[in-house]
Write a structure and sequence with these properties.
14 strands; binds uridine-5'-diphosphate-4-deoxy-4-fluoro-alpha-D-galactose; 3-stranded mixed sheet; about 40% helix; 7-stranded parallel sheet; globular
Amino acid sequence: MRVLVTGGAGYIGSVVVEELVRDGHEVVVLDNLGNGHPEAVAPGVPLVRADLRDRTTVEATLRERGIEAVIHMAADSLVGESVQKPGKHHDNNVGAGLSLLDAMVTCEIKRLVFSSTAAVYGEPAKQPIEEDDPTVPTNPFGETKLAFERALPWYEAAHGLRSASLRHFNAAGASERCGEMHDPETHLIPIVLQAAAGQRDRVIIFGENYPTPDGTCIRDYIHVIDLARAHVLALAGLENGSRIYNVGCGGAGYSVLQVIDAAWRVTGEGIPVKMGPRRAGDPARLVASSERIQRELGWEPTLGSLDDIVASAWKWMQSHPNGYASGHSAD
Ligand code: UFG
């Protein structure tokens, strides 16, 4: 299939592109490079540098490249930043996203896979979280992803646009070519590994009095390649209708302290830590039930151990000591 990946120069998007190419799809990336890196785009895949609100370029790309489906990953995705800058997140994640949908309608493209987030659930009353559980976001990032998800059934009713929304839990790790690099970095695993590599003095743990066994937040870390595979399967699954899927590894999840322990085991390096205050917008615990996507699409996390995930991130960091040459962040 000919697939447009928005945000395909970003951290998760670049690995989705790799997996699509591996499966024989023809891929075009559209990215404004606000958060992405041209070097992260798989060799031979065309990169159109444009903003989603640039309807002329988006529609020309959809038409001229004969695009049959869109995987929409371009977004602002930092929980902490979303609390500080709710307008930026609404503008990019809702406003620019709707502009993309309207371009798809104009060009009669009726297949969409959307990268949503576990942040739509807020502070869930039960774990693991299932897709039909209440969605009560505790930060603008989750709120904006939910707003876009909620627009989709209306576009389907009016225009026949089918969609799969994949609620990502915490993507981590790296492929051979593509890894996580943001500037400034805010994600736990790269921060912990930077401390292990001596690139930062210490890791600040955001809150030690959460209602979890060790008092630090629990997340469901999923290898970025497993997450990317879910997008490829969801694309094929669109033939059966629109769906919402959680994508995480499930189990008990891992606390911030457990991630630091894993990084210590993997790197063999000491990791200085300091307790700090809570970060606004952080739920205590987010762990997925991915039973629906496993049952319906046959997806399974195959690279799920935390040590393996951290080891792949560490390997990428060591082979890319300065990150990507273009320097700015990949989201
Ligand atoms: N944390 C620290 N210290 C740090 C950085 C993070 O203690 O220096 C903690 C956070 O408070 C949180 C956990 O580590 O409890 C994970 O934080 P991340 O910033 O790595 O990830 P988030 O859970 O905030 O969010 C990520 C993505 C979102 C996605 C979400 C899904 O950034 O886009 O996972 O769960 F939606």
